[in-house]
Amino acid sequence: MSVQPFVSPDLIRQRFSKAMSDMYREEVPLYGALMALVEQTNRQVLDREPQIARQLHSTGEIERLDMERHGAIRVGTASELATLARLFAVMGMQPVGYYDLTPAGVPVHSTAFRAVHEQALQVSPFRVFTSLLRLELIEDPQLRAFAESVLAKRSIFTPAALRLIAQAETAGGLNETEAGEFVLQALETFRWHHGATVTAAQYQTLSAQHRLIADVVAFKGPHINHLTPRTLDIDSVQEQMPAHGITPKAVIEGPPRRQFPILLRQTSFKALDEPIAFTDQEVDQGKNRGSHSARFGEIEQRGAALTPKGRALYDLLLNAAREALGAFPNEANAAHYNALMAEHFGEFPDSIEGMREQGLAYFRYFVAEKGLAAGSLGEVSLEDLLRDGYVKAEPLVYEDFLPVSAAGIFQSNLGDAAQTHYGEHSNRQAFEQALGRSTIDELGLYAETQQRSLEECAKTLSAQLT
Ligand code: OOG
Ligand code: NI
Asked: Is 0.85 topped by the overall pTM?
């Protein structure tokens, strides 16, 4: 009997991401329309701006662009989160970063499961923004106990998925047959179900407390609530959305438009109202159904990963612009908000050299043709190598999320009425305890990737960098 070798976790993630996208396109046809619009816009940008095309080719990003997407889910209990961490680990995804959404009135805290090494990201950059409901923020003890009891009854993983996770952990991987089965079984956790787990009245009570609480507690599992493709020109897609029957939110979250994009810009379209059968209603009696809105669409444009110094400057300018606006960005003040953002971000250098010289972004260094033609270089400084064109620098792509932006995305979907004030704040420790492990600091990952690229340059050039 021949033994099948293990499939690499990166390839399992690549397959899973594709399977998830196919499932979501079937479930939410508007996602398909958005994908088509993004693909078309990306092609236009590549034709129109050879400099962007060149940059994407030189970093290899061009190969991952079309398959790049992130999704988001929300879970209700520590054990669900801990098992999700094990499920994602089978696909080489680790929890990176901690995001506290309570300052924005959303009773969750979150992490992003993603690959951590640049080579793994290149095979599949698929990420899942994963939020854990903070039941302790429900003040009414009776309602909290009810929510807990409903969640305690559900099992969000199929028995086969649980078996395959354990199998991957003990054997150290999954073979071809197992990997194929794992992708199918794992997908079940994220599927949409028209049938709720509570009565219509119970749903109303949960929803009155917070729409998000109803979204987590009243359903069989953590349905994927959006999948986000990556665009090269978010302003252009935002502008074209209405003509394609898609209504975007009022403002694009994140930094303003720039020559050299930084971090992450995002926009979404509002959640769709979908028919739901509550437990006291007949599933197949169309007229008697309730409804729930959970699933929406989002697009994003990714730019340079910032260093702690760059991130501090970003936060400072964003806060200053928001303070100057004096209100939450909305339809009525969108133009004013955009003008304020552009004005404040004038202080953030908009060139690769400017960001590099001031230490605002992380870079990947690679040997240019001139460097490849040179002999052994010995002791030399990075600055000299860059100046003489032996080495080139490209910003590292930001692979993570932004808490203020995430809050804006949550809010535009939950409706402004859902803004609640919570006295309790950030609790990374409790989150990590639920997760069963610590979250990884994203800044450390960028620093490591940058360092590896410098070491690679030194090796290729037979140089000692000073
Ligand atoms: C997640 C919202 C945040 C993003 O891209 O920042 C998000 C959610 O609605 O569950 O998706
Ligand atoms: Ni998102």
From this structure: yes
